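Notes from the 1:1 (GR / supervisor)

We went over the backlog. Supervisor wanted to see one worked example end to end before approving the batch request, so GR pasted a single chain during the call. The sequence is below; no edits were made to it. Supervisor asked that the structure be written out right there so they could see what the output format looks like.
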Amino acid sequence: MKQTELPIVAVGAAAMRDNSVLFVRQTYPPFTGQWVIPAGLPEPGETVDETIRRELEEEASIQAQVVGLIGLTSVAAPPPPHVFIVFLCRVIGDAEPLADGSENDAAAFFSLAELAALDEPVEAQSRRIAERVLWGEYQVLAPTDLQSGSIFTLIRAWM
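Structure output shown during the call:
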């Protein structure tokens, strides 16, 4: 089988504070004008947990602790194909999120009720992730569960 385009890795965060999840309103395709969970691509030499903490800081001026892995999916469309890794994060402090004004034009925490009442579009996968987290319908693969075996002699992991 010929593979024409290799998938990229993307990471996202269900960043929690109290009973709310952080969303940003995206300003570029494919989700222009839609509320999404913060997400992004790793930079060279960056681990996935470093990526999501950086993305939360860049997109919403929020600091967070990575609690663990809660989701992994392979997405073929919209292109390019990618593997999407979703982390549960706990927001540090009580600062209000600030939009970066470039990738997004708004940032806010939404509870289940606020998300349901929102009269603006919410990207479908982001909505599902947030609702499942807010309903408590998820499991966390904690960093200690992700330790590598002795087969690897050098590994940068987020544990």
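Supervisor's comment: The chain has one domain: 8-146.
Batch request approved.
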